[in-house]
Amino acid sequence: MASSTSGPKKVLSRFRQVVGLLLPHSKSTPPPVSSTDDDKVTTDDHQVSTDDHKVSTDEKVKSGGEDINWDNVGFGLTPTDFMFLMKCPVGDKYSEGHLVPYGNLEISPSSSVLNYGQGLFEGMKVYRREDDRIMIFRPEENARRMQMGAERLLMQAPTTEQFIDAVKKTALANERWVPPHGTGTLYLRPLLMGSGAVLGIGPAPECTFLIFASPIRNSYKSGIDAFNLSIETKLHRASPGGTGGIKSITNYAPVFESVKRAKAAGFDDVLFLDGETGKHIEEASSCNVFMLKGNVISTPTILGTILPGITRKSILEIAQDCGYEVEEGRIPVEDVLAADEVFCTGTAVVVTSVASITYQEQRVEYKTGENTVCHELRTALTGIQTGLVEDKKGWTVHLN
Ligand SMILES: Cc1ncc(COP(=O)(O)O)c(C=O)c1O
């Protein structure tokens, strides 16, 4: 492999020569997402292969992002330079993982992820501080959540140490894609797939762990953004004994229809109700929900049908620190309709006010803006995440 003095061009040409890969972009504005044969990471018959395409950490392309046109970065996918791949025969240990150029994968048509949905994902962000250093937030929580999901789906998850190490390597290899402080973040998407081939319904004999990255812009403009939600009364997201409490890939396509219908009617997202009674709120398509009444902040209890959000967990703690009474319980629709404030939490939405909820044609509006508890909690959380406020909880991990 190239020495530490190798430049990006040398790395690029080496990959083109050796494995016929094209990096999807060089050091300029990213191209649209494409899927050509040239982009793929080659594989053997049964698995996603990583062996031939390692990038030593010395070969990382770093340029501080001066050449990136941040105006072109939005909320969609902007591919970055490298992704991380690591694989594991089930029942064994993960072999050492590697950074490879971002590109398509080749995977067995009979892999369990493609046939049976044996897959999990995570979502996390890399934040740039004012002093230009970069950090991540509570990565051990993402590692643990993936391990919980892997247990449920009979997959082998990386250990917490392996997970965090992979996250660090991916973040550092793509450091130039971490947007300037306060403008956005580098979103990381860890994926765990049953990549081995199976024919009969059953777990894959091999798992692949992968992390790719994409910069995203901040959406929230100093407390004024807010969601308009509708309560979904036809479809359910999760049911008792199902997989609603883990980040299974199979939880997401089934909500597309509800969200599409809601968006067509002018809403931003839907709130799902519990599958048993249809009387209690659970969560939105990809974020948790909270309500405020007086001095009490409540959120639905995690009972296996709601994703245990890391932002949710952090906000529960921050709210208590700020002097609010905090409750977890079953929240009837009527209670949320009578709330003073409602807000959503998640890695993507951070903490975002709900401006209105519509339920069976009835629309209820809530307080939004800078003078809200939502804004207070959001400011406290993002202060820690971006290094503006001292992290007394040990939640942040510095990467450089
Ligand atoms: C269904 C669902 N609920 C809640 C969340 C929020 O979780 P977190 O705060 O860990 O991002 C997410 C996002 O990951 C999600 O997909």
UniProtKB/TrEMBL annotation:
<feature type="modified residue" description="N6-(pyridoxal phosphate)lysine">
    <location>
        <position position="247"/>
    </location>
</feature>
<dbReference type="InterPro" id="IPR036038">
    <property type="entry name" value="Aminotransferase-like"/>
</dbReference>
<dbReference type="GO" id="GO:0052656">
    <property type="term" value="F:L-isoleucine-2-oxoglutarate transaminase activity"/>
</dbReference>
<dbReference type="InterPro" id="IPR005786">
    <property type="entry name" value="B_amino_transII"/>
</dbReference>
<dbReference type="InterPro" id="IPR018300">
    <property type="entry name" value="Aminotrans_IV_CS"/>
</dbReference>
<dbReference type="GO" id="GO:0052655">
    <property type="term" value="F:L-valine-2-oxoglutarate transaminase activity"/>
</dbReference>
<dbReference type="Pfam" id="PF01063">
    <property type="entry name" value="Aminotran_4"/>
</dbReference>
<dbReference type="GO" id="GO:0009082">
    <property type="term" value="P:branched-chain amino acid biosynthetic process"/>
</dbReference>
<feature type="compositionally biased region" description="Basic and acidic residues">
    <location>
        <begin position="37"/>
        <end position="63"/>
    </location>
</feature>
<keyword id="KW-0028">Amino-acid biosynthesis</keyword>
<dbReference type="GO" id="GO:0008652">
    <property type="term" value="P:amino acid biosynthetic process"/>
</dbReference>
<dbReference type="InterPro" id="IPR043132">
    <property type="entry name" value="BCAT-like_C"/>
</dbReference>
<protein>
    <recommendedName>
        <fullName>Branched-chain-amino-acid aminotransferase</fullName>
        <ecNumber>2.6.1.42</ecNumber>
    </recommendedName>
</protein>
<dbReference type="GO" id="GO:0052654">
    <property type="term" value="F:L-leucine-2-oxoglutarate transaminase activity"/>
</dbReference>
<dbReference type="InterPro" id="IPR033939">
    <property type="entry name" value="BCAT_family"/>
</dbReference>
<keyword id="KW-0100">Branched-chain amino acid biosynthesis</keyword>
<keyword id="KW-0032">Aminotransferase</keyword>
<keyword id="KW-0663">Pyridoxal phosphate</keyword>
<comment type="similarity">
    <text>Belongs to the class-IV pyridoxal-phosphate-dependent aminotransferase family.</text>
</comment>
<keyword id="KW-0808">Transferase</keyword>
<dbReference type="InterPro" id="IPR043131">
    <property type="entry name" value="BCAT-like_N"/>
</dbReference>
<feature type="region of interest" description="Disordered">
    <location>
        <begin position="22"/>
        <end position="63"/>
    </location>
</feature>
<dbReference type="InterPro" id="IPR001544">
    <property type="entry name" value="Aminotrans_IV"/>
</dbReference>
<dbReference type="GO" id="GO:0004084">
    <property type="term" value="F:branched-chain-amino-acid transaminase activity"/>
</dbReference>
